[in-house]
Amino acid sequence: MSSGSKRSGKRSGDADPVPAIDARKLTKRYGSGTSLVKALDRLDFRVEKGEMVAIMGPSGSGKSTLLHLLGALETPTSGTIALAGENFEGLDDRGLTLLRREKIGFVFQFFNLLPSLNALENVMLPALIAGRRDPKVEKRGRSLLKRVGLGRREHHLPSELSGGEQQRVSIARALLLEPELVLADEPTGNLDSRSEATVLDLLSELNSDEGHTIVLVTHDTTAAAVAGRVSFLRDGKSAGEVAGGDSAKLIRAFAKLESPASKTKKRRPSAKSPRGKR
Amino acid sequence: MRSYTAVTLRQLSSRRGRLFLTISGIVLGTGMIVGVLLLTTTIQRTFTDLYDSIYGKADLVLAATSDAGALPEDALARVRTTQGVDSAVGQVTAVLSLVGADGPGAELNAAGTTVEGQSYSDLEIVSGRKVRGGRETELEASWAEANGLQVGDTASLATPSGIRDYRVAGLFKFSTGVDFGGEGFGFLPLGEARRAFGQPAGWSEIQAVVSEEGTGAVDQVKRRLDAEFGPGVEVITPQGKSDQIQSQLQALNVILYFFAGMALFVGGFLIFNSFNMTVLQRMREIGMQRTLGASRGMVVRSVLTESSTLGIAGSLLGILGGIGIALALIALLRSIGLPVGALQWTAAAPVAGILMGLITATAGSLIPALRAGRIAPIRAVLGSEGLRSRPKPIRAVIGICLVVPGLYGAFTLGAADQTTTAVVAAGIGGIIAIFFGIALLAPFVVSPLSRLLSWPVRKLAPIEGRLASDSARANPTRTAATATALLIGLALVVGINSLGSSFLNSIEREFDRAFARDLTVQPRGLNPGAGPQQSLAPSVLGEISDLPGVAVATPERLVATAQLPQVAGRKGNGPQGLLFGFDPSVYDKVDSSQIDTGELTRAEAYARVGKGALTVGKGYAEEAGIEIGDEMLLEGASGAEPAPVVAIVDTILAGGQTVSMSLEKMARVYGITSDTQIAVKADSVDARAEVKREIERLLEADYPNLTVLSNDEIKSEVESQISQQFGFFNALVAVAILASLFGIVNTLSMSVLERTREIGVLRALGATRWQIRRTVANESLIISLIGAVLGISIGVGLGWALLQGLAAGVPGVVYSPPIGTMFAVAVAAVLLGLIAAIVPARRAAKLDVVDALSYE
Q1: Residue A265: pLDDT band by 50, 70, 90 thresholds?
Q2: Cβ-based contacts under 8 A for chains A and B
Q3: Least CB-CB distance to B851: which of A129, A133, A271?
Q4: Which one of B286, B561, B611, B648 has the fewest CB atoms closer than 10 angstroms to its CB?
Q5: SS3 (DSSP) at B180
Q6: Among the residues of B3-127, which ranges form H helices?
Q7: Is there a contact between B850 and A98 if contact means CB atoms under 8 Å apart?
Q8: Reported confidence tier of residue A272, pLDDT bands at 50, 70, 90
Q9: pLDDT at residue A263, as a whole number
Q10: What is the DSSP string of A91-136?
């Protein structure tokens, strides 16, 4: 794996010895017997501090699973993950929860703001969950909202914000507790093209100007192009990687990747299918 | 699947967990109905069997209109010579108590009669023989067995003339096989009974056999006997006696059905709430069916089919539960001293159960069904988006329009002297109207209340408290409906216990005011008004008077009567009430009741009572318009006399339905000669304790069935009697509260389901499982506390309205809020909230984060 690229963060040059993410031989299997699905198969994945990496791949390639594992939302069947040198192994649910709380910021495709909280309260949510109520955090919340360009919308409810604005609130939320790593799952998948551009510019700036380490999962080449490095996945395995930046090159690479791919959709079978689903 | 209905049924079976929560109210409600029905059937059967047995051969029974009253000695001869009477026997009765090694025990209803007299009863000797004479007794076999007595054993019985030992000559069984719930029956030889009961002459009861067959003949003889003896003596058929008990139990039945109805009402409410949630949740699906061509009617019918199926299923379970409830109620009633036999089955129970279950389920689901019918096909696309309904203001107007007349209805119920059907209907209708009104009003207060109630939680755990409160407010109608189901039970508890606490406080106030005595000697467990009571041996009074330190010892005779005396010349019967006999020459020393004596002094008034005048309780006086100076006609078993009223007594005993007279007058007119209790005054305050010890020593040695109580002890005795009764009511309401608990669980499950994604987000952002649990528990607490706050307020209002009504008939009863109950209700609400949250909170905490995040 190469480290650094022309658009990676300012610290990429002097390659920090401890990577932001160091995942080795990650395997994730669901089900058993005939319904066994191998979502990830002995995958190695590494992200240096200050890097912005996009993960691309067709449906069922395992890219979402990888993101869930990196985000400590699920545990791998085998393999190890270290976040800024701290190994996930041996952490119970509570340990993983605290890890997510303190070290990881999430940006979701559907924003997932709490509808009853206003913009500032949504940004403050991680601090509230962590039981931190000092004025410093609140100040940081306000300045983050300003940073994402919503300084005057503090008291608006999510339903009063556009999709792009909601996603910017959720980015501010992800940054509140200064995480080691920001994970974005299709952050522009639910946006119109103008909002998409704003959100992508924001993410890119946060990486290049402020040195946040960002991993984003997407199947949109425009989105992937803002990353310094694009890593391809297919059938749970690495399928090479290219430097980001050039959208046209990415499209070609992605097309090559998709054509021979199995058309079957391997969706993650839920452990317990929630009842009452519409 | 062959029909559209089949689709409905398939849907039902796909949601089994929710199903149980939905029908739990129906199960408990129909269970109560069935249980109460079985109980009343059992009670009825118990008494019918009892009188069938006791008066097996008799066509007519003659007894004094008042308890403990006696017919004169010549009455038997007069009955025998009445035209149409074939034969007649007389007996004397008393309530005795068995004296064991460890003090007095079970009470025994004893009758003194001849061998011929016994042959009138329908019973069979199972061992030994009938009593003939001397100190022997014959006991009902199951009671004897329960008390470890066999033929040949000696039974020590506390009688009105002290403890006497009897050889058990025989054991008998009633031929109807009646099990009277542990109540004891026994016979003594007539002569011995007269000595033991202190009744050398006269009869407690005379049974007559009519020479001709047929009810016509019996009626004719009854009319002749009525004319012969006048209103002081009641002539009644055994069937009539049983009917009389039934009508006395009517009030109890009404109460039982009322509580059963309330549980069912809560059940209907839960169905309503549950179906509202389901319809909202299935909006997309129903819209889809509409696009596929299902008509509105089909959708409505589909929902109703679902609910009626649930109603029937729920009531089938309810019938099983009802048997358990009936058994529990029987045990409860026995524990408060009401004799009830073994459970009787009736086919009416399952029929009523299924019918009520079906009606309740259908009625409860009607509005959700109609709402489902109005779902437009476009909802197939939109789902329930943009449907967060806010309650319309018209609801508040209707709500207020229901609550106000509802309170008036409750007032009417409280004010009624007699629980006629119309009054009960007004009262129950009123109370239900209050609850409906509250259900309509509740959504408006949910938002501010949940903000207020979640304040402490928000301070402690900001995010959990905030989210819980938002969740409760997000769907105010649902939260309100859930809280209303709970508040019904809580309000009933507070309302009912308001009556209890008001009565208790008023009685205690009266005791504080009226008791100039220091001590009272009475039989253990004395409860005037609850059937025949034990009386005191005549020797007790003299022995206590002789004790050192006793200044005054004076007897009191309290006797329940079916007909209080009327003002002379007025038609109709007087109401039920209490006759009170006392010695006016010394009574002032032990009693300082407030008495309105008109122009006379208190001493003058008492002197008049000594010469045959009466005093009347304020409640009766106000109700019947009796004034000082009015002439009343006393008609007892032993005679009839006019008597003037000289004073009105301010008392709430027996609801103020009392008439008091001198001991002599009571004996002359009513034939009542035994003392109910003795009021004692010590020489000085310092002597009190010593006098009490002296009396205790005396009673322990010779009269173990008696007890001596200080004024405080009497108060706590009354308190425990009242709280026992209200404990029974509370147990009944508990069923409704239990049903509403399932309602909270149902709403929380729905809330968790709706917020699955949100929970996923919180977990991803680092919320621990415990934080998620707390969020759900907080929502539950908010709901249950809303129920508690509203329930307590409504209960106080309800209790106040009931009491104002009651106070209209019983002057002197003052409203006092049941503070203890209110606290208990608040604590119970917190506990219920926490219990309700256990399962939903666990489910929410266990959600897989990734699944939850992708949940739509």
Answers
A1: very low
A2: 89
A3: A271
A4: B611
A5: coil
A6: 4-13, 16-54, 75-80, 115-118
A7: no
A8: very low
A9: 44
A10: --HHHHHHHHHHHEEEE-TT----TTS-HHHHHHHHHHHTT---HH
Cα angle B660-B664-B666, degrees, rounded to a multiple of 5? 45
The alpha carbon of residue B444 and the mean position of all alpha carbons in its chain are separated, in whole angstroms, by: 35
- φ and ψ at residue B520, rounded to 5 degrees: -130, 130
Contact across the interface for A97 and B462, Cβ inside 8 Å: no
Predicted pLDDT at B44: 85
- Residue B743 contacts residue B22 (beta carbons within 8 Å): no
User: B242 Cβ partners below 8 Å, 6+ apart?
Assistant: B47, B48, B50, B51
Q: Which residues contact B328 (CB under 8 A, 6 or more apart)?
A: B35, B731
Give the whole-angstrom CA distance, residue B438 versus residue B452. Answer: 19
Q: What is the 3-state secondary structure (H, E, C) of B364-424?
A: HHHHHHHHHHCCCCCHHHHCCCCCCCCCCHHHHHHHHHHHHHHHHHHHHHHHCCCCCHHHH
Which pLDDT score, from 0 to 100, does residue B819 have?
A: 92
Band (A16; pLDDT cuts 50, 70, 90): low
CA distance B532 to B521: 18
Q: Does A108 touch chain B (CB under 8 A)?
A: yes
Instruction: Please tell me the predicted confidence (pLDDT) of residue B705.
Output: 83
Buried b (16+ CB within 10 A) or exposed e, B68-107: bbbbbeebbebbeebebbeebbbbbbbbbbbbeeeebbeb
Count of beta carbons in the 10 Å neighbourhood of residue A81: 21
Tell me the sheet residues that pair with A229: A53, A243
CA B419 and chain centroid, separation:
14
Tell me the per-residue pLDDT of A91-112, one tens digit each, with 9 for 90 and over. 888 999 999 999 999 999 888 8
Kindly state the greatest CA–CA separation across chain A: 55
What's the gap in Å between the CA of A234 and the closest CA on chain B? Answer: 21
Distances (CA, A) of B26 to A271, B331, B335: 35, 24, 28
Q: What is the pLDDT of residues A34-89, one digit of tens each?
A: 888 888 999 999 999 999 999 998 888 888 899 999 999 989 999 999 998 889 88
A278 at B interface, C-beta within 8 A: yes
- Establish if A82 touches chain B: CB-CB under 8 angstroms: no
Instruction: Report the alpha-carbon distance of residue A178 to residue A74 in Å, rounded.
Output: 22
Residue A9 pLDDT: 42
- B653 close to B618: Cβ distance less than 8 angstroms: no
Instruction: For B784, list phi and psi in degrees, rounded to 5.
Output: -70, -30
Nearest to B475 by CA among B750, B286, B737, B739: B750
B343 with B323: CB under 8 angstroms?
yes
**Closest Cα of chain B to A83: distance in Å?**
16
* pLDDT at residue A258 is higher than 70: no
pLDDT score, position B418: 60
Under the banding of pLDDT at 50, 70 and 90, the label for residue A165 is very high
- Compute the half-sphere exposure of residue B591: CA atoms within 13 Å on the CB side of its CA: 24
Q: Which two tokens stand for residue A17?
A: 């010895």
Q: Which residues of chain B have a pLDDT value below 70?
A: 1-15, 101-104, 178-181, 337, 384-390, 416-421, 529-530
What CA–CA distances, in Å, run from A58 to A42, A237, A251, B429, B676?
A: 18, 12, 13, 67, 96
Is the Cβ of A71 closer than 8 Å to some Cβ of chain B?
yes
Strand, helix or coil for residue B780: helix
**pLDDT confidence band for A1 (50 / 70 / 90):** very low
Are the Cβ atoms of B470 and A173 closer than 8 angstroms?
A: no
**Which chain A residues have a beta carbon less than 8 Å from that of B462?**
128, 133
pTM, full prediction: 0.83
Question: Token pair for residue B752?
Answer: 């968790």
Yes or no, beta carbons of A97 and B767 under 8 Å apart = yes
